[in-house]
Predict the 3D structure of the following.
Amino acid sequence: MDDKKNRILCMKQYLEEYAEELHPVTVTVIIKHLDTAGVQSSCQTVIRELGQLTATGVDVVCNTGKPSQYFFGDRHSELPELRLLIDAVSASRFIPSRKASALIKKLSAFASVHQSGELRRSLYTDKQARSAGDKAYFAVDLLHTAQSTGKKIVCKYFD
């Protein structure tokens, strides 16, 4: 049973990471990946467990044909949404450069390997205007938390 769980999880992770509509994978490719990961499998086993993934709500799409091709259908975010979020992070002046890079890397993880390359485009931003520290980044979170919990916010203005 443990080998079955490992195989299903390994297949799901591989499909999320590599298989998309423009880059579907065959059962043979999935078996090669499983062998690389040290998990034994057969063609019938992979097909049956892909069906089990689909039955449990994972959106595995099958392009029927010779050979059948599979890809991960429903992702958390669409590519245009991720581009918009990454552009917003890149353009934001209060987020320090290293924090912006970390956020962009995290957002890129929601796309497949093929799509994440498309997300690494460079948006022109004025680098001089970036914040040097994390204080503004955490201050925005603190303000948002206070506002959402209904607490008063007191500000001191200075030059």
